[in-house]
Design goal:
With 173 residues, the protein is of the alpha+beta class. It folds into two domains: 1-34; 61-164, Umud Fragment, subunit A, CATH 2.10.109.10. It has one helix and eleven strands. A seven-stranded antiparallel beta sheet has the order 1-2-11-3-4-9-10. It has a four-stranded antiparallel beta sheet with strand order 7-6-5-8, with no helix packed on it. The radius of gyration is 22 Å and the shape is elongated. It starts with a helix and ends with a strand.
């Protein structure tokens, strides 16, 4: 009888370790390929995302769909390994985007939005019309007067291949 009990204990220990290994493997897979958290640094997305917030990102979020206007995306910095920008998509492929008199124009029409509440003081590189290519997106921070984004030549337009993920959840205001 004692031998029988020892066999059951060994069997249960084995099952426990198999289950724990499977859980760790699934968690690693989800974190590496599907979802992840990114910390927000800076105030370029205020008031919607504050510095120090953590956001949930769907990695490769556009495998089955196309990015949409006003989606908040994550893309890597060209100048810093492991650094990412978080911005909002404003212009879509094949559109013409420019900023004039503090307002954003898409194909000659004023963009109606509720994210960037302040009038844009300096259009920077977007003062002249920018024709987006078939795979390019024009992105801006919500804090339009304090954001490094597509208006800057250091960032420019973002291609679909550069988009690392779509922000799914962020803290409430």
């Amino acid at each position: 009888m004692l031998t029988e009990v020892r066999k059951q204990i060994k069997q249960r220990h084995g099952q426990f370790f198999v289950i724990m290994f499977a859980i760790i493997l699934i968690a690693y897979f989800l974190n590496y390929f599907i979802i992840g958290f990114i910390n927000v640094h800076g105030d370029s997305m205020e008031p919607n995302l504050k510095s120090g917030s953590r956001v949930l990102v769907l990695k490769n979020g556009y495998l089955l769909s196309e990015p949409q206007r006003f989606d908040v995306i994550v893309f890597p910095s060209r100048y810093c390994d492991q650094c990412y920008y978080i911005k909002r998509i404003i212009g879509l492929p094949n559109e013409v985007v420019y900023i004039r008199d503090g307002r954003i124009f898409i194909d000659g029409e004023v963009l109606v939005e509720s994210y960037g509440l302040a009038e844009i003081e300096d259009a920077r590189g977007a003062g002249e019309p920018i024709k987006l290519a078939v795979d390019e997106y024009f992105v801006l921070g919500d804090n339009r007067n304090n954001s490094t984004d597509s208006c800057d030549t250091d960032i420019g337009n973002v291609t679909k291949d550069e988009i690392a993920g779509k922000v799914l959840i962020w803290p409430k205001k």
